[in-house]
Amino acid sequence: MARTLLIRPGEDARTPIRITPQDAGWEYVSFSVHVLRAGEALKDATGGEEVGLVLLGGRATVRSSAGAWENIGGRQDVFDGLPWAVYLPPGVEFEVHAETDLRLARGGAPAEKGAAARLIRPEDVEVVQRGSGSVQRRIHNILMGNLPAERLLLVEVLTPGGNWSSFPPHKHDTHRPPAETYLEEVYYHRVQPAGGFVLQRVYDDARELDETLAVGDGQLVLVPRGYHPVAAPPGFQSYYLNVMAGPERSWKFAIDPAFAHLAHGMDERPAGK
Known about the structure:
- By secondary structure, this protein is mainly beta.
- The protein has one domain (7-262): Jelly Rolls.
- It is 1% helix and 46% strand.
- Strand 6 (59-64) and strand 7 (67-73) form a beta hairpin.
C-alpha cells in the first residue's frame, strides 16, 4: 500500500497528479491529470492498458490510431454540466490537442483486448439522482455498466454542501462474487469554492487502516481497501471522479455492518457512489 492515501498536486503544472500502480502499491488502477493551454498537445499511448480520457474542462481534439474526434467537450469545469470522454483500448497511440485551455483526466487499467474505441458524449452518460436529504447527490455514470470495457469503471459524483456521499460506508476489497468484488479506486476531488475542503474517511473492519483526510481542491485519495465515505461542509460543493478496476468488471460492494440499518428506506439504492 502507498505510504500515504492523500496525494497532493506536484510541481509539474502540466501534470499535477500522476499515480501508477507501482506508486499506489496495487495492481490495476493508474491515474493522471493533464493541464494544457490552448494550442498545446499531449502525446501518449495506452500500452497494455485500456484508457478513459475525461475532459474535466475545456475543448479538445483527440486523434488516435483507433479513431479521431474533433473539437469535443465544452464545459468550463467539472461543476458545469455533463462530461465528454474518450475510451481507448490497449495498443493505441493517441494525441490530444487543446482547442481551449484544457484540464484532462486519464484513467487506466490493464487489459488484453478492451473494447471498441469510442467517444462518450454527454447524452451517453447515465445520470442518477441518489439518496435524499443530507445524503442526496448526483451521479454521472461515464463508463460503468452503461458502456462496455474490460476492467475500467469511471464515474463522477457531485455532492451539495452539507451532504454525504459514498454513503452508507461501503467497501469492495474482497473478491467473493456475486456478493462483493475486488476493486481498487481513486477519488480525484474538486471543491467549489476552491479554498474549501471535504472530509473522507478510509477505514477497514479491524481498524488496521483508519484515516480521516481533509481533502483540498485538486487532490487525490487512494482507496486500496476498506470503507470510504465523503462529507462536504456547508457552503462547499464536492465533486469527485472515481476510477475503479479489478480482476472482474463488476461493482459489487458490502456496507459497513454498523450502518446496515440505513441501507433501506432512503431510496431504492442509497449505498454506493
